[in-house]
Design brief:
Length: about 425
């Protein structure tokens, strides 16, 4: 049998720290609705770590993985992407990060992995797919794709108790809007709460799927408003979270035990400058258009003066795959769109549950499929400024990452290599 362990570390920051995720929100956190956590799931010598923040950067991921008591190639660290957490990526998403919290976050990831190792015990894997509860919708177009279904892994001890549950759903954790000033994991908190109540003693781990263009039914522009609405409330987050959890509870699971393996692939994330005017001209025009110092135009003007066109060298993206029994897990960086996840599923055609996670080991911003660039919109034309990038992430990047993800999971699934790491490097060439 495989060895499985899980752990939880509380990382709830103190009040008074800047929150991340909404340009309209300029006030600091005033309290906490629920605890923000780091959760680790260790299977043999591999691990998934989920963190209740909007994202982690590649540097923090690399440092934490290097310090943990497992091969760094065998660990993937994903953010739930809650917009009810603190600034967690220095230099990105406009607000200033709290240095003490960043240090705390790194330490918590390391502690979570090491504690999960200590907690390991023999277990078998049960897997399945929960019925889509119908909460997710494409926010860019009514007929847009959604990566439906809920992949599930439940880890059962030899005594029959549940050690941990891994669940993924491809939907932005932005039920709570910009008016919220309380720390919260958003709807994933309620998913975990319901599952841990149903399975006493278990640790529930929620990993966000490819939700770059998917949320619970509002446009990206709605996040620019501080207006409170019943549809963006803790009551609604509970309804959605419990609904997802019920799909997990009701799902039919089968034994998916087997060998454990992992692989690691690297690819380039390149950039394309879409702005036509010079930075000084754009900055001047945006400042003239700004209604006050908190206007979005001020953020754009600051971006033009500090970042536009600067350091457009490719980012090195890490794509990892884990093979837990007959279940595949692909971890991709950034805000990946649903179309990319569906492309991967079609190429792999895996019968057993396949987890396709986003926001893993880095979050440089939105990475749309090539077809979406013609549609423009916030994710293509503006979001790179909020993320502090010199330009928009280039077309075909998503397709290249999908190719790397397929290669990675296939490498992890080769029977002769399931118990040892593999590594390769892909260059994008755009």
């Amino acid at each position: 049998m495989i060895q499985v362990g899980a752990s939880i570390i509380d990382i709830t920051p103190p009040n008074g720290i800047a929150m991340a995720g909404f340009a309209a929100r300029t006030e600091v956190a005033k309290g906490d609705h629920d605890a923000l956590t780091v959760r680790a799931l260790v299977v043999d010598d591999t691990a998934i770590v989920t963190v209740d923040v909007i994202g982690i950067d590649a540097n923090l991921s690399a440092r934490a993985r290097a310090r943990a008591s497992l091969p760094d190639q065998a660990i993937t660290i994903t953010a739930t992407h809650t917009h009810g957490g603190p600034v967690s990526m220095p230099g990105r998403l406009s607000a200033k990060a709290d240095h003490a919290f960043i240090l705390c976050l790194e330490d918590a990831v390391v502690k979570a992995v090491d504690l999960a190792i200590v907690n390991q015990k023999p277990a078998r894997l049960l897997g399945g797919i929960g019925v889509e509860p119908g909460f997710a919708s494409n926010r860019r177009r009514l007929d847009g794709p959604v990566d439906t279904g809920i992949p599930i892994l439940r880890f059962e001890s030899v005594e029959g108790s549940t050690i941990g549950i891994l669940v993924s759903y491809a939907c932005h954790p932005v039920v709570l809007g910009a008016d919220n000033l309380s720390w919260t994991g958003d709807y994933p908190h309620f998913v975990r709460k319901k599952l841990e109540t149903t399975f006493p003693g278990a640790i529930a781990i929620f990993a966000t799927g490819c939700a770059g263009d998917v949320n619970t039914g509002h446009s990206a522009a709605a996040s620019l408003s501080l207006l409170a609405t019943p549809e963006r409330s803790f009551a609604k987050a509970k309804e959605i979270g419990f609904g997802i959890a019920n799909s997990v509870i009701d799902a039919r699971l089968t034994d998916v035990s087997g060998n454990v393996g992992h692989s690691e692939v690297f690819a380039d994330i390149c950039f394309e400058q879409r702005e036509q005017e010079a930075p000084d001209i754009l900055a001047k025009s945006w400042r003239l258009a700004a209604k006050d110092t908190s206007s979005l135009e001020v953020i754009w003007a600051n971006w033009a003066e500090k970042h536009m066109g600067r350091d457009l060298s490719p980012l090195k993206a890490r794509i990892t795959a884990l093979k837990w029994g007959s279940v595949g897990i692909i971890a991709l960086p950034g805000e990946i769109f649903a179309e990319t996840a569906l492309e991967i599923r079609e190429k792999l055609a895996q019968k057993d549950p396949l987890f396709i996670l986003a926001y893993a080991d880095d979050n440089p911003g939105y990475i749309p499929p090539e077809s979406d660039y013609l549609r423009g919109g916030y994710e293509i034309d503006e979001a790179h400024r909020f993320y502090g990038l010199g330009a928009t992430i280039a077309p075909k990047t998503a397709e290249h990452l999908a190719e790397a993800g397929c290669k990675s999971v296939e490498m992890a699934g080769i029977s002769a290599a399931q118990t040892r790491p593999t590594k390769t490097y892909l260059s994008q060439g755009v």
